[in-house]
Model the fold of this input.
Amino acid sequence: MPITNAVNQIRKVIGERITVNSSILEQHGHDESWHEWQPPEAVCFVESTEEVKKIVSICNANSVPVIPFGTGTGVAGLVNAVCGGITIDLSRMDKVLALHTEDFNCRVQAGLTYKRLNQYLRDTGLFFSVDPGADASLGGMAATRASGTNTVRYGTMRENVVSLTVVLMDGRVIRTGSRARKSAAGYDLTHLFVGSEGTLGVITELTVRLHGRPAASSSACVQFVDLTAAVNAVIATLQCNIPMARIELVDELLIAAINNFSKTAFEPVPCLFVEFHGSESSVKEDAELFGDICREHGCTDFRWTANEEEANTMWTARHNAAYAFLAMRPGARNYATDVCVPISRLAECITETKADATTNVDVDHVIAGHVGDGNFHVAFLIDPAAKGELEQVESFYDRLVARALAMDGTCTGEHGIGLQKMKYMADEFGEDCLSVMRDLKLALDPRNLMNPGKKIPNQQGPA
Done:
């Protein structure tokens, strides 16, 4: 059996750090999405790029699929072993390898989480800006092209990854770039692998961009009469070129869930959570101008704070919003949707989407989003076994994506394609563009062994 041969050969490389224990296999056969669990046939806990190289080479020789695994916090089924195979768990590769404060970058192993990196940077005056909420690994964040609450000012993983070390399916180890601030040399392989969802190679190291901590910051929870008013305030703010650091939309039901879960006391109405970074004077001026815009668009209350502890409480509650929502229906699964549209179409898209969900889906839902860059989520609490619930939500999602694409948007702003959104790829890109993606996949992984069954529809199974 190929899998037995591969496991025996890998055991000679890493000893008992390869396991076929059923509970560990189950832990690695799913993320935080609603998809059915699909465990691998073995899990390897790796500690170096060299080990990954040897394991991938063994899997390639035995025609065994490889599934990279960070922390399992995704929501698109990216780590499910749909064709069996061996999961490579990178969580032990969690070191900062080099810090270059004068160049505002550092090199890290892929299993390091962004929260632990920021703890490491705490006394340097620098921070890593991408904050997806869950304590995700940096390798996983690169693989999914993650973003978060800071994206409107500091960008997504696409803007904050300088170079990568990647193990290809044939065992080659490549470094996709240097630490120079710019380069016109060669193809841009760094950004080919950023967002590749583990289908082209295993990311083992990253050089990431860092940012200086702001001299001053101010945060606020701003209340509105409805979602449309809140989004129109966002659009007007961005069109005035006010440099927001964070601007998050949270609807009234999710605010209630957050209050219950995080023991906060926000008014249960549609809210914007916002933050400004800069000097003392610039933060004050920007906040005052933003306040004027919000009042013009029907805000009902402001709760400003420059106190770090109070701000941290608010942003921690926002980051825990998905868990707060899940707590509303114990045992349910989170069906999270994820579209992004041009800012000018955001209010229209959210208003139509809210009406659609309220009218056509008999399942509790919430709306939240990183609306500063046009990205929002509608999340549903479903029991996949309950008759009709999954079908209703999937039908809604088809309409939501069609709406976003008609507005020149995308079917995913940050969660990735994974298992959930492959059926939308042809509508978004067209068959010619999709065929180029298949050609790239074939060039780097001709037998489709690297995280098969994800990202690109109609790929031939492992050969």
About this structure: The longest strand covers residues 216-224. The chain has 17 helices and 19 strands.
